[in-house]
Amino acid sequence: MAIIKKSLSDQIYDELKMEIITKKILFGSKIVNRNLQERFQVSSSPIRDAINRLYADGLIQSIDNTGALVVNFDVDFYVEVNEILLGITNTGIKLAFQKSDHKEVADILKEYISLQKKSIGTEKYFEYDYEFHKVFIVFSKNSRLKKLYKKFNVLHEVLLRGYYEKEVFKMQEHSIEIHEKMAEAFSENDLEECFRLNEEHYKKAEELFKEVFLRIGEEAIKTTIDD
User: Fold this and answer.
1) Is the pLDDT of residue 200 over 90?
2) Domains in the chain, ordered, with CATH?
3) Which part of the chain is the HTH gntR-type domain (predicted)?
4) What is the per-residue DSSP string for 66-97?
5) Which of 113, 133, 109, 115 is nearest to 205 (CA)?
6) CA–CA separation, 222 vs 220, rounded Å?
7) Can you tell me the distance from the alpha carbon of 168 to that of 121, in angstroms, rounded to the nearest whole number?
8) 15-39, pLDDT tens digit by residue?
């Protein structure tokens, strides 16, 4: 087995990305180059490389000479990302339907569903959810679509991890139910049903996010009044 050695910029990128995803680095906050150099004990080059990659992912809003500004999410931002992902995944489903063996695709989808069931409530669940939808993207045999999916899924995952704390089990169980129906529809050559289920999947996520965001706003107002 080949041993893959990560560069300094790769390691810093991975660390900062996870800290943004888990909200250790707050949305809308400033990350300072000099502080990161001191923390990681590196020169400015790997810091700049890591920040540029985060910017390409959409996690960084702007960059200046001193550092970078992390994106500040709101409900409109989430809705737009969700709409784009729905379009990307529907395109993946359509192209995979045209270019690939339906049974082969369905069998791989079912493998990821099995892994999702074993991982509800854990960090691994997000990985397997990503891989489930990625199956369609891979079998679409379109490399540019794959890059788009990866970019916008990072933003989607940040929002899911950041806000679905109380609803996470309900959301994940519902997603698995939809995924099972999608795999079945694809294996039965029912493209329209697969589209419908995929849209239901993303619309349900949007509804849950709006509920959570509304609750967060109400709690913030209550805290302000109490203070």
Assistant:
1) yes
2) 8-70 (1.10.10.10), 75-221 (1.20.120.530)
3) 6-73
4) SEEEE----HHHHHHHHHHHHHHHHHHHHHHH
5) 133
6) 5
7) 7
8) 998 888 777 898 889 999 999 999 9
